[in-house]
Specification:
Blueprint (H helix, E strand, L loop, with lengths): L18 H11 L21 E6 L14 H7 L8 E3 L6 E3 L2 E8 L2 E6 L13 H13 L5 H7 L5 E6 L2 E5 L7 H5 L24 E7 L3 E6 L12 E6 L3 H9 L5 E2 L12 E14 L9 H10 L2 H8 L4 E3 L22 H13 L7 E7 L6 H14 L3 E7 L1 H8 L10 E8 L6 H7 L12 H11 L3 H19 L2 E13 L3 E2 L16 E2 L11
Parallel strand pairs: 1-10, 1-11, 14-15, 14-16
Antiparallel strand pairs: 2-3, 4-5, 5-7, 6-7, 8-9, 9-10, 11-17, 12-16, 12-17, 13-17, 18-19
Length: about 525
Amino acid sequence: MKSSALSTQRAAPPRPRTTSAMLLAGVLLASSGCAVANSAGGDTGRADGRTLRVVLTQEPPTLEPCEASLTGTGVVVRSNITEPLVERDPTSGKLNPLLATGWKQTAPRTWTFDIRSGVTFQNGAPFTAEDAAFSIDRAVNSDLACNVEGYVFGDEDLEVKAVNDDRLTVTTEKPDPILPLRLSFVEVVPRTTSTKAKVRVPIGTGPFAVRSWQPGAAISLDRFDDYWGKAPDFARARYVWRSDASVRAAMIDKGEAEIAVALDPMEAEKDTTVAYPNNETTALRLDGREAPLDDIRVRRAIDLAVDRDGIIDALLGGLAEPAGQLVPPGVVGHNDAIEPPRQNVAKARALVREATADGVPTDRQITLVARNGMFAGVSETAEALQYQMQEIGLNVRVRMADTATQLQYQLRPLPKNVGPIALLIMHGNQAGDAAFTTSQYLLSDGPQSTFGTEALDRRIAAAGALSGEKRQDAFAGLLTEQNESVVQYAHIAHMNGLLGLSRSIRYEPNSATGDEMRLAEVRSAKVGSAKGAKR
């Protein structure tokens, strides 16, 4: 998704810690969740004024464009190497032309797109409607098992046809009022791209092309001089990755990088950091297939045990808001009437005791799985949740995992014979519509759901066919039903990101930055420019 810049937001000072937060911090100091810092040495990137250096939390799992809806891939690929037909403004939600110059619904199930002329791929081939049709077919209809297929299209096939070089039609299985929005997730590649295997080095129409990928070290990009749009300020870009937030921050301070993502909240007062709402929501996904999590009383108890304010104040530096639903404000379907639950340990303990009396094995060990580098303070947050769940009478252990392992727990087919799992997730709805959340996380057989109800499934299907206020009200009701009758999630916080920015550049992060950092929007600036100015 493309994005127009938001106003730069000054990082707010951390809020005063509450008594519970101070107690929580004390518990965490006594625990052993220390991260091991990666060395910042060995980075051959130089501050030459022509190379934009970005430090990520981890190496991207792939650069395959059809996997660009994965945060680790999209932050490099989207808008930089490849582009979609349509872009969404994250502030207004408006859809804007990109590789398509216009579109309209020409039949109940058919949309027609006008294709931009004069666009060239990085391999020199001209871009036409045939490439757009190929890209959609490859991402949605092929056997590649692309993440975008399940996440955005729910495994439904599309009928795609290039009418001529300048026009494309897309026909859905049933009327789809948000098809152009869905297509903003499909990155366009040349029709010569493999359909048998995912690619390592993608070719697109974006402002940068891949020069090299050194596994475990760096990804380097070169400016694409035949780019159809405005040329970026920087001739090159270089991505490296460091798992330790303090190392990433130090690379900004030492002039070793121009941009550093996901900094620790303790860095918020620096004039080289900017806080921004990133549309990410953290939550515990409770696997209702396994005892004791198959009992709704236990799931409700966990929801009541979470000290959201304490975690935000003590561990997230106040740079988040308590959450009671998976989608943040601004997303179609967000329910303003839902209030985040207040911690109620006494009530939570009573629910656990009631379940125990009825024979539920509440002493069975629950594994709380969290991913290293998911956000600053993730290991401490996992330990805090473990402590809070143990306080109400549950048996919990923490397992910190790498990305590949965490995805095995997060995506279907889910692992078997692993016992009850409470998975710490961070969901970002960058599309701005709750359909993308409910189809993934609330459907009984959703790609990132462990269970659900038939009644909720029917309501999700019905809501997806609506538009306007009816669509908003239907999805808001679904989120309420999840909280009342399913409780698959114990929501924690709507997150803010904290970005490190060198004084030598100007960049305005927005709610899409965590998933799609447009390097072409980064401008050179004189060293020492005021932070209050646009960056």
